Amino acid sequence: MKHDAALQELTVRITEAALFLDTVSKLLSERVVGQRKVLERVFIALLANGHILLEGVPGLAKTLIVRTFSSALDLAFQRIQFTPDMLPADLVGTMVYNPKEMDFYPRKGPVFANIILADEINRTPAKVQSALLEAMQERQVTIGSTTFLLPAPFMVLATQNPIEHEGTYLLPEAQLDRFMMKVPVEYPSYDEELEIMQRSARTAVFQDVPPVAQKSEIQKARALIDRIYVDARVERYIVDLVTATRDPASAGLQSLEQMIEYGASPRASIFLLLAAKAHAFLQHRAYITPEDVKEVAFDVMRHRIRPTYEAEADDVSPEDCIRRILGHVKVP
For the chain, what is the total number of helices (H) and then of strands (E)? Predict the structure, then answer.
């Protein structure tokens, strides 16, 4: 009874704390046509203090989503266009000589913002990727011999062209693993594209939306997410899913043994739990269910599974492997 009362009290607090997200979501829907799943995943990553990788061809409103999202939340926003000739200093900053003082001082780069849009992240070489890695994982940047903390909240939303496109680089596995989710951005439907054309075929310049929320509301929401109840059986279910990607045979999936070169890291278990909690928060619930885990499983694990050559020859994708694992691992 005491436990039930605590959950009810937490549910009420979650419902109240989530109101600002409903306002932001409504504002986004007025600017962005469709892409409901992408918008929800961006909210989940923000609430769970993670980063998100958006993959899709140009022109699918990825930049519009991120820019509108940051404006509505009154967060400092920086768009960084990644190019093959980019240097780490272009991202994090550098030491600049002051002849008057005869000394060097740090000039901070564009990474010092709350929301970073890393546009076409896979068009830049590994040197710049390594510079972004520290910022994403440690929430800090080293310029010269000085380390600077990045502002909070800090979130990287990276866009990536499909790897088949000319002039793209494979992201290092270590960096891919830092992204909480990888979300494909699909083409709009016929009706959605008609509405996009009717809305956007104007000569007026894009205007940022007014802020409708504050940073303090994000911090309050994150504190409540940490309190969301997780049953021990659901925790084991998450670990069962992740370990099945690394050792399918032990999970009774011998047919996948030759299809997966390597599976998801332990970071996948952490992100699955955090993303499931954030998903429950968006549903105004004080506990998570296996359905919350299933809902975010594809986005959390698709970039953490490397298919073998045999799998690629048979057109077996990471999503196919995840689907078979979800269908086989026993749900509590």
Answer: 14, 11
